[in-house]
């Protein structure tokens, strides 16, 4: 693991150097996991040169030459001084993630000349996965696909969306899902994923997910809402796959009975969008171009009004994945990112067809040296439940 | 619902008045849910007088005279001006929750003379529940207890902690659990709760939960770790109960075979602590006194080394509950809070006995006018699994 961590430290130090930074203080769980390989309560201090220092409050018992136990962050200054490490002039803090009051506390401790956005620095570094990370994501993809293969066997006639979802959740946990769903930013919440049946797929959501759903309660208005799975409804399953600490994202559509012709045509259009993007996506290709390509194909099929939602439409067709479900790059019209080998993203062209429900596809892809490679393999046609 | 919301607005306005504040801008999900009764993307603006204004980005279609659709928070200033509402001189922002960069954005929009800590203002107001909220918590407690009654029927010999946990999670969802677990602060993460068997109960955790557990992966080091449920081990179930948007907290202990005498004695001591605190707790009683009482009873029983953990010990014995699992008050030695009618808290005296596991109890209590009332009723002895 130490060699793996060194790669990440090097990537972060190179990013720091590019930005003229002296150090970054990392205090959020996701980024602590990235730079240390585990979650702890405390802070990681990464400088331009040398190994990071890990200032740990909890748990007791961590070993290692870089581990320094503290009771509060104010002690960090003394430890740096003891080691002859000068205070940083240009310090990166996770300014998109840490609270205002935390920020002020760290500012007082380090008193830097300038503070920069470490959240975005880390998002950039994390967007290009190491081989080890790609392995973790691939493993999650294999288990995720295995889960989806079992979905038809979990269905019983007369079920509601919630009842089927509960059986899928259980099967996911039995296959090793850790259950939690890490999302960047604090405004998006969801349980293990969503299962959208019939017109509930068109219920607009407060969250920035591709599709909504009314949910079971005003405190969590997303996903299934107790809709009975009756004849002629589509059942879209978009359950997160967190089997390894790294997420994969994957959506498949099932049907109860037969859907309308328009629904099948929209599903085929989603598959066509996926095919065209698979052919086009490669290092150097702007993420925005992929979005525009998808929008054009949907328009050519006369389905613009249903693309990425109907009453409320999402403004993206894909997103980076990793420790969190919404990493860089974002496949959206104003995205400034281009694909780079080692990026991993989910592509999710979807349509919401009134009185039928949601159709479409989602898979996770790795950007390779000359194209993209799918990581989530499982039947892509609409599978009838019976 | 509007009368219920008015009570909350009044309580918040009284708190604002006490602090000499002009307004509070609320943008986090939990507090938006509190002041509006639902989750939306946007902001609630509560002034000293008059109804709040709800600035909504998503979802589309919300109705009401106080609902104003915006694309970005910068538009709020213009809307206030249009309505002849002066800019606030003393503005509360959720400074313990919103990111530094969000803070700077709101500061620019409102340009107040002074900004105060709205997170703590809201935590104070939310710590005293309305009758409606108490009803939601009571309902969650009933379903939570029903879940725990079913636990023995979910056990099969040869199971691991994870396997039993998965069956409890499923049963919880079937009873209506929403699944998610809202925690104040961003450093604590957990799936639906924890099930700790044997010595895994003593694995120290990075999180500030009462007990730890190694978990299944370094990315989520908490709770069950695949420990087989073998003869002589205790099985502590501490699953969150979020059935209504309001959480209850409840722990029960089960045994595989017979435990050691010390384990039973420690369990009885936990029940004794609960009994004594139930007799003592009442409006006006300092939360710190209840903590000290518990510590004294554990010491008198010669069990201090095992109280609230062994290798790593937690520094509290209870905590407020509500929309989040860790609200005010905290039952800890340095707590400055005293009980007030309408507060709801979880009391969790627990012991970790090496080579046996965790024993103890947790229930949720309402502070009434003259004492406390238990909300989570279910067998409290150690129940053998067979």
TrEMBL record, chains A, B:
Q: Which InterPro entries match?
A: Creatin/AminoP/Spt16_N (IPR029149), Creatinase/aminopeptidase-like (IPR036005), Creatinase_N (IPR000587), Pept_M24 (IPR000994), Peptidase_M24B (IPR050659)
| UniProt cross-references to Pfam families, sorted A to Z | Creatinase_N, Peptidase_M24
GO MF annotations in UniProt: aminopeptidase activity
Which top-rank group of organisms is this from? Bacteria
> Which residues does the UniProt record annotate as the domain Creatinase N-terminal?
8-128
Alphabetized, the UniProt keywords read: Aminopeptidase, Hydrolase, Protease
Tell me where in this chain the Peptidase M24 domain is found: 137-369
Among PANTHER family, the record links this protein to: AMINOPEPTIDASE (PTHR46112), XAA-PRO AMINOPEPTIDASE P-RELATED (PTHR46112:SF2)
Q: What protein name does the entry list?
A: Aminopeptidase P family protein
């Amino acid at each position: 693991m130490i060699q793996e961590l060194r790669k990440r430290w090097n990537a972060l130090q190179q990013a720091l150097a590019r930005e003229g930074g002296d150090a970054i203080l990392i205090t959020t769980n996701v980024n602590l996991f990235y730079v240390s390989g585990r979650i702890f309560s405390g802070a990681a201090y990464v400088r331009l040169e040398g190994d990071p220092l890990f200032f740990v409050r909890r748990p007791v018992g961590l070993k290692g030459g870089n581990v320094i136990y503290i009771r509060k962050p104010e002690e960090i200054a003394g430890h740096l001084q003891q080691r002859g490490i000068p205070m940083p002039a240009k310090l990166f803090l996770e300014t998109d993630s840490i609270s205002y009051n935390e920020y002020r506390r760290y500012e007082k401790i380090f008193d830097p000349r300038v503070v920069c956005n470490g959240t975005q620095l880390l998002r950039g570094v994390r967007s290009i996965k190491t081989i080890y990370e790609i392995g973790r994501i691939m493993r999650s993809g294999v288990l995720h696909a295995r889960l989806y293969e079992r979905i038809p066997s979990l269905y019983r006639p007369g079920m509601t969306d919630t009842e089927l979802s509960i059986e899928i959740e259980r099967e996911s946990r039995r296959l090793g899902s850790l259950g939690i769903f890490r999302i960047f930013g604090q405004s998006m919440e969801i349980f293990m994923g969503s299962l959208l049946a019939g017109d509930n797929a068109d219920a607009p959501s407060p969250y920035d997910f591709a599709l909504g759903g009314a949910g079971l309660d005003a405190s969590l208005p997303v996903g299934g809402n107790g809709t009975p799975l009756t004849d002629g409804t589509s059942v879209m399953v978009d359950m997160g796959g967190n089997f390894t600490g790294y997420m994969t994202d994957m959506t498949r559509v099932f049907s109860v009975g037969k859907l309308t012709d328009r629904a099948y045509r929209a599903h085929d259009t989603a598959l066509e969008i996926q095919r065209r993007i698979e052919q086009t996506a490669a290092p150097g290709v702007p993420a925005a171009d992929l979005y525009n390509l998808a929008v054009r194909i949907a328009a050519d099929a006369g389905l613009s009004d249903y693309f990425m939602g109907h009453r409320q439409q999402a403004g993206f067709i894909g997103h980076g994945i990793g420790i969190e479900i919404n990493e860089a790059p974002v496949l959206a019209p104003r995205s400034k990112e281009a694909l780079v080998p080692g990026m991993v993203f989910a592509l999710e062209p979807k349509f919401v067809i009134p009185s039928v429900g949601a159709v479409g596809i989602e898979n996770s892809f790795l950007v390779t040296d000359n194209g993209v490679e799918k990581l989530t393999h499982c039947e892509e046609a609409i599978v009838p439940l019976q």
